[in-house]
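Pipeline run #58 for the internal structure catalog. This entry was flagged by the ingest filter as a single-chain record with no existing model, so it goes straight to prediction. Upstream metadata was stripped on purpose; only the residue string is passed forward. Reviewer on rotation: M.T. Logging verbosity set to normal.
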Amino acid sequence: MRCIRTALGILATLCMLVGACHAAPSPNAERRITRLDGSTITQQQVDATVNQLLEAAHVTGAGIAVFEDGRIAYLKAYGLRDTEKRLRLTPDSVMTSASLSKAAFATVVLRLVQQHKLDLDKPVYQYLPKPLPEYPQYADLSGDVRYKKITLRMLLSHTSGFPNWRAFEDDHTLKIHFEPGTRYAYSGEGIELAQLVVEAVAHEPLTALMERELFAPVGMTRTSMVWEPRFESDFANGYDEYGRSLGPEKRTRPNAAGSMQTTLDDYATFLTAVMQGKLLDAKMSAEMLRPQIAIRSAHQFPSLATETTAANDPIHLSYGLGWGLYSSAYGRAFFKEGHDEGWRHLALCFEGSGAKNKGAGILIMTNSSNGEGIFKPLLDALLGPTQFPFKWEQYTPYSDLPPLPKLKEHKRVTLTAAQLEKFVGRYGLSSQVVLTVTAGKDRLFIQENDEPKQEYLAESDRDFYSTASSDEVTFAPADGNAAQVMILHLDGKDVAVKRLQ
């Protein structure tokens, strides 16, 4: 249940093996990397820093790319992609990109705008062959005509008024929470609506469109919006905070908000294409990285929280089209994060006339839920003082985090096939998130959409716990009849999910 745990927000001792250096312009180990202020560090210093941080923060593996002049100056993978098999992470290991997908998708949308197939300011409902509320996933909007005001510009700048995900609304329905276009509130729902529109206009599925418009032209040869058999030769498992394997995400349906499978090498290549202006003309590139909305929320999440702050006014924190933006002593910067269970990523690039290293930047991709704990020390060491809004992102350095709670001890009980059968069925968290419960071998399996099944063992005649995470579920009623509600216990919160009839 990765997207559920993401929306809500046994320490492994790992031998941190260093992966092969790849795609750096020079094999000379003495070559120095230029930081934002003009100072330099050696590649050996990078290696020492990354390895120390991975071990101290219990991060399974990390891929690091550093950019100079809009080009890859250093690219290397560290740690493991599979702890059980002791397989090294490589620059070509396929990883779930999580929300890094959104920036790639936004780039393709803008290519279609540039081709005059889309207009950023045309209400998106006008592109669809039928009224938006007639699509089952948008039936909730039938009583709110404000949906007619929503444009692609709003969807790509996260100003549509949608929540991040409807699944975490009290009633699991989709709502417009504020006048579209008036404030920033990060929304995966908004990106999914943009996907519906783009597929309708392009008359092809997102997987094919992204391949044609982005992956093939850039040379992203190990990237796709869905899992492909060719990835089996080299892929990474995701790992939770306790070092437990979550496996790979073998998505079968494309999702612009987070399904993209990619590698360190491929995404770094994409970033260089963005920095060098190879994907869009000068006018559209400028529009993509122009502030569309100022951000004054105290934190990015929860996305609809009303607390505001002026703390980020000095850096002009804002959002463009697919990218977060801010200003620094080293010029303007654009960034995108990726956050999913077992995956934590960050891309940060500087346009910057103020930087000694123009076209500087960094890409960090980790296969660990502990990954965000190394972001600040990595940026400080490899780039220098970036003025990145760490507090707004809630990126706490690993050294400042409290110890992980001790894992709960469970006492397993054995239930009969008949007892398990009453829990079997489909439960709907929303029109887009369906949990399918199956039984077998005296245990239950729960599958979220097309993600891998998770195994659950019984702790009572109605309570179950995951063997791979801290997730727990309770079924009700437990009176011998088929359960009608599954209650998910995730990160201290209870989420009730009703059986689909």
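catalog note: The longest helix spans residues 43-57.
catalog note: The radius of gyration is 23 Å.
status: ready for reviewer M.T.
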